[in-house]
């Protein structure tokens, strides 16, 4: 627990300005679907993100674990950054998808892909999520 608390405190210090203003979406990719991961009660990534001081971005009326089709990726246009969870951190062909590459956060390289096994878990997973969120927020500076 001490390692998580230290990592979280360091993160908050390093990214205080970005935390106040950044619009971040947490999504899961299971080819060919994208889903929001904005349920901080059931899922660890949004729990950790809100614990760090982040606010989950609203995505045009979508919430919880709503799906976002590839045809509706424009719903993500207002995001400053995307935290993307995928099996074994592998997004396969999504990276070469023209619609995906048009999303502003993607075209600005403000996407971090993490292993979806951090969905649930222990303090180890939470600490790893802080590391991954740190990578993401480092793209905003």
Automatic annotation (TrEMBL):
SUPFAM superfamilies (alphabetical): Helical backbone' metal receptor (SSF53807)
UniProtKB keywords: Signal, Transport
Cellular component terms per the entry's GO annotation: outer membrane-bounded periplasmic space
Keyword hit for Signal: yes
Protein name: Iron complex transport system substrate-binding protein
Organism: Sinosporangium album
Classification of source organism: Bacteria, Bacillati, Actinomycetota, Actinomycetes, Streptosporangiales
């Amino acid at each position: 627990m001490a390692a998580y608390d230290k990592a979280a405190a360091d993160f908050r210090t390093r990214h205080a300005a970005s935390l106040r203003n950044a619009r971040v979406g947490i999504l899961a990719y299971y080819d060919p679907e994208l889903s929001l991961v904005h349920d901080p009660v059931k899922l660890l990534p949004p729990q950790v993100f809100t614990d760090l001081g982040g606010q989950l971005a609203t995505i045009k009326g979508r919430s919880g674990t709503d799906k976002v089709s590839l045809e509706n990726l424009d719903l993500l246009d207002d995001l400053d950054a995307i935290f993307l969870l995928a099996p074994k951190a592998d997004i396969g062909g999504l990276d070469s998808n023209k619609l995906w590459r048009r999303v502003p956060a993607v075209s600005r390289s403000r996407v971090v892909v993490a292993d979806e096994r951090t969905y649930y878990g222990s303090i180890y997973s939470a600490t790893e999520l802080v590391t991954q969120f740190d990578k993401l927020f480092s793209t905003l500076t």
